[in-house]
Here is the input.
Amino acid sequence: MTAMPRSGELPLPQDEDALELYGESVHSRMLLGTALYSSPEIMRMAVEASGAGIVTVSLRRESGGDGSGQRFWDLVRNLGLRLLPNTAGCHTVKEAVTTAQMAREVFETDWVKLEVIANDDTLQPDVFGLVEAARILSGEGFKVFPYCTDDLSVAERLLTAGCEVLMPWAAPIGTGRGLINPYALRSLRAYFPKTPLIVDAGIGAPSHAAGAMELGFDAILLNTAVAKAKDPAIMAEAFAKSILAGRLAYRAGLMPQRDMASPSTPLAGLASFDMPDAS
Here is the structure.
């Protein structure tokens, strides 16, 4: 999942656990968005540096009237990666379902990242519309990846609606604030130990991604933090390594936190250096 090592750089250890999404094995635990880059070439370089196996793409961009959509589609298709179309910008169930149906025709996949937005300032999901749209699309054979909040009851309803993957936010889209509610994310992981959980939205730094992976999350979806970096390709590589580091740390088992200090050198058996009484 990492970029090729540079000259003099040792290759990183690999994550040997396969990520299974709707019965398909994915070679990378990093998903990358294709929006906001300063040029198609910069986007291509970032995707390649990330080692991502899945890229998200918006039907709205594909459908541009100036022909740019077709050029963009050709570029994304030449990357040879699994596509995850999204319903970005949709505010109603009908709009999201229709967009997903169109995306299936355009991108020739039944995978869809489902977004139903409730608030334009926070881009918070409309959880009621999201569950309803997920139920409809799952009934039509879609493999739904719902962008949701970190609420346990919403997660349960999405799973009941047919979703086999959940994509909770860490923070509102594009804020870069990281894990604003680690307790809620930890609870999701504990309540749904067998469900693939992908953190989607709000990740702003590689350390945020590593922290989410250390909680036991299965993958990270990124866009703004990479696309808006001074050097997107280098940032993509940094995220790829942090995601791998977090995953390896979770597998290895993190030490428990303590309220009091604990010496790394045991006191028993230490040599005694008592000075003789000068009197």
Confidence is low (pLDDT under 50) at residues 1-8. Residues 232-252 form the longest helix (21 residues). The beta strands are 19-21, 24-26, 30-33, 54-58, 82-86, 111-114, 143-148, 167-168, 198-200, 219-222.
